[in-house]
Fold:
Amino acid sequence: MWTVVGTYSPVNVVDWLVPGRNLFLALQVLGVACFIYIVSKRMVPLLRAQADPRFNRPLTRLGRVFKFWLGQWKHPRYRFAGTLHIVIFTGFLLLAARAFSVLIVGVSPTFVMPGLSGRFGPVYETLTDYSATIVFLCMVVAAVRRLVFKPVRYAVPAKYGKGHTTDAIFLLGLIALLMAADSLFSASRFAGLAQAGQSAESPAFLSLPWMIEIAIASMPRTALWGLNVGAYLVHAITFYFLLCYRPFGIQFHVETSLFSIYFSKLEKGTVKPVRWDVSDDHLDQVKSFGVKTFEDFTWKHILDFYSCADCGRCADNCPSNAVGRPLAPRFLTIKARDYVFKHYPVLGKPNSGNPLVGNLYSEDEIWSCTTCGACEEECPLLVEYIDKIVDLRRGMIDDGNVPQSLQKPLKALESRGNPYGKMEKKRGDWAKIPALQTTGPVKVLDAKNGADTLYFVDSITSYDDRMQSIGRATARILSGLGKNFGILGAAEKDSGHEVRRFGEEMLFQSLREHNGEAIKESGVTRIVTSDPHAYNALKHDYKDLPPVEHISQVLASEARAGNLRFNSVEQWLENKDRVYTYHDPCYLGRHNQVYDDPRDVLDSIPGLKRVEMQRSRDRSFCCGGGGLMLFYEPKEEQRMGVVRVHMAAEAGANVIVTACPFCMVNVEDAIKVAGLEGKMSVVDLTEVVDQHMVREVREKDVTTEKLELTNIGG
Amino acid sequence: MEILVCARRVPDTSENEIELNSAGNDIERDELVYSVNEADNYAVEEALQIRNRVGGNVTVVTVDSEDGEEILRRQLAMGANQAALVTDDAFKGSDGKGIATILKAFVEKGHYDLILTGVQADDGAAQVGGMLAALLDYPFASLVNSIAVEGTKLKVSREIEGGNREVNEIDLPCVLSIQTGINEPRYVGMRGIRQVASVPIPTLAGPDLGINQGTVGEAAAKVRRVDYFVPTSSKGAEILHGSREENANRILELLAAKGGLN
Structure:
């Protein structure tokens, strides 16, 4: 295709001061050199950052590149913006070869991109004519969105600095200009060739070059020639300007996203170790824990800062942001990116080293996160937030900078193994009520009393009066299913799930060590828990344990096997008008992808009416957070739980079913705060199952058990 | 500035269920967990903040059995420069004056510009600070909730009735008893304690400090505990049975009637 333009190319500009070829070559060398220089400057903080081994499992990582980069997997979650992005992304990919061809043609007029010399050449030409047109139109649409419709998630609250609209419009304009220049270059060439009678071809029908060609077809040949050279220059300058400007803002993701996604975190539910290059046994030798200064981030986390495209989806889904806590994941990243640009300037020496918390971030900002994972679930570029938050908290813990409200529970966890400061010997007392003894006493496992299954109860279910009912329902279900199970009783300590996520790594490790030993000594072959936080901790934070299941998984598989059958809800008069909705606990759903099991269990109860909230499954809205988050006193406009309860009411439900004791605490409180007592209630999945399951034996005991159930579920 | 903080190990009321023993002369101590007395922790934090502002050293001392080392480690981890454990079987059963006598002997072994105590121990009677000052013939300010260093003087304030503040000037050296809430004590994690695990903590006994054994211990105590009892619960509670609004209004009325609203 390009071979025929030999006599009609910008290289042949003879009346310029310098021959065109030299000008273009100089321009290109300068552009490429600038880009290489800027990018190498951007690499400096990455090289100074902490280790992060992301070079394993290349096939899995390539698979993720196909899914999340090439496949744009997360984008359709925002239908309109996502589609727009997919179109632009596809256009860019298609135009990449053309852009390089055009640049090279300026220097070497006879150049043909490999693979485009044969029959595919014209096809590609048509394709890119349309691509340029569509990308151009997308820029117009995107600009209109930004300027006229102003989606809320792009707004920048005053505390986070000035708005980003001007920058966004400038970038959209540059891309539009690039497309227009490319089209004009193509159109003027076709028009010129047509006038010279050299080519019968023309740009693709109805494409931007096609329209331009019609408009300029009758212009004199010299004017066309001028247009051609001008378009080429504008295209080349815009291209290199954009290339060198991108590393200064959100457009840098064009270059970095591929790497961000290739090196993205593979294991959900886990938390990064204090230092990737120091084993847990050698942590005592580490001088400083966590992220205190910018260079304490890992290189991948800094790469994340470069890759963020400021799309605002994380903050749009962040429950902390929704209730007015001083945290929006988007600005956690944007502030860090602005910091790195300022302190690692392209011209001049790095001048970093100030503590981040207290300057870049506020303490409350860092403590506000419930680690629900909504931001990470949404991010099209797989930017990590939880690990960064945990690392920042580790730094604060290490400096002793911990809110007073958290110090007491942390101290109690250290001395008593639970955040409430309750006596260890009373940990198993919840199982000692008479009704539970008749249906099957709960064994406390020790050297003499063994069992196959360990029910890991964890602190809140052991000690909180209301949550103990979840423990008893779980115990009754397990014995009803004929499981040989037991608890650790006084030998159990808090799983430490939030201890770790609040940054107190050494305390977590001591709890883990204690529980790990106790579990090993009990000789069990499987672990069941009714607490998703304990489930996540045992599954991801502990090592070498027997398989761990959440009770909802056990129930679903027993129901599928036919071992768990239910009485119809109509058997209980008070259940007649109930409409249930299932609230996904973050650590069961998003972090462990257990979405269907609890729903399947509910749906296998005959007559149970269930509706879905608009925000469900991986878009579930955090209840307010578990573990130590119950002790933290956030600055917020309203409670997350209240927002969630209103969502349930909107869905037409009057019973919220959850499968987590912390969700229970938060939602129960929220119902009171929202003034919906009597209209809305909350119940744990185990309690629903316990009430409805068919028990083959002990009919008369069911009545004694019902006594305890009358207060449950409203 | 050389600062001494007198701290004490107490059963943590938030982590224990305090019960009387069967003899009724003490609390059941078998399964208690201990921590540094809360007000003393604020005193240590205040000392560290003063040191960070004006320089100097912070020493923490406790009079206890050997178990007292536990809280001294914690205070070292917080940032105290040194700690000392004063322990002697002869100290057992000392009353407030006895403890003050022991501390006085310790103070005289060193050179301290400022001595801080907590306003009171969870299981104490708020007397040691004042007695120590008197024995040393130092000026004393109690219930201190802010300290500003001004050369050889301090400006200290305390809260008085109605939330108002009174500011006093006091000459150094002096003794201050520190109120909780004066600052926000820093957190001490397991890592911090591990890092100071090998820091030596000198142990001093009566003879090391030249204490006359007759002035301390049970024999010298003129205040003796004779009984412990749990007060019987009386009927004083009024439970409101009404709608949310009615109850809220009734509470407002009651608070106003009892002078709780100003």
User: Anything to note?
Assistant: The first helix of chain B runs from residue 38 to 54. Residues 105 and 249 of chain B are 58 Å apart (CA to CA). The longest strand of chain B covers residues 140-150. Chain B touches chain A at residues 12, 14-17, 31, 33, 35, 78, 184-192, 194-195, 244 (CB under 8 Å).
